[in-house]
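As noted in the main text, all predictions were made from sequence alone. Below is one such record, for N-acetyltransferase domain-containing protein.
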Amino acid sequence: MDLELDAELDRDAVLAAYDDEMRRNAPADGPGVRVEQVGGVVRQSGVAADWPGWTGVLWSDLDEETADGAIAEQIAYFAARGLEFEWKLYAHDRPGDLASRLLAAGFTQGEDETLMVAESSALRTDVELPRGVRLREAADAAGVRLMADVHAAAFDADDPGFRARLEAQFADNPGALAAVVAMADDEPVCAARLELPPGASFAGLWGGGTVPEWRGRGLYRALVAYRAGVAVRRGYRYLQVDASSDSRPILRRLGFTALTTTTPYTYRPGAGPLG
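Prediction:
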């Protein structure tokens, strides 16, 4: 995929900072989370068997001689725990044929997303809402329930783990997460969250979803602006987002720059030739 870049943003420097802070030295993103470097791989997993969060490989530093061994090691580690996991592959990761090696080992390729970044202070932070819509912070159980309702309607997927994960994050470290729901009267119609890793330069935009009948009315843009304001007030230099093909044009118009692409490769125990 050809990426159009903002000439004012030093892409290589920002990407190097992102790799260092958010991948190589990634903070745990919830309670009961273990992030560890094993050889040339950084992986995340839950300590508890029923942990509902993300599990997989965040970063790797491999070459043609070490890649297959590292892949087999991670398959064995997660399979021994009966866990499905994701290898989050970035376009600049090495070796160049790592994607083919993952497929050969039994991984399933997901849809590409684009890692996009913007200077928080350069974005508009005033929120423009359609008539009759107001924003509600989601920092309690009722707010999390509203977010889960929007998530189910927007993505046509009822995921109990999503609600459990948000509840656990708020309970463990409420200052590391900001969430907001757009309400049309008493109906939740759009929701999104902002992850604020302690000590990092990057705040993450996640979960931006709008129910079908409210799309195209500027709610997604409004929630980006709201979260940008939070990031600025909290001292985060950058906003980063894994953008889908639908949100990428909107984010580009708002001032985000594409750094690279990322693709999920998922392994299910017993599904591959090494399972």
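Residues 119-260 form a domain with the Aminopeptidase fold (CATH 3.40.630.30). The radius of gyration is 19 Å. These features were considered when defining construct boundaries for the mutagenesis experiments described in Section 2.9.
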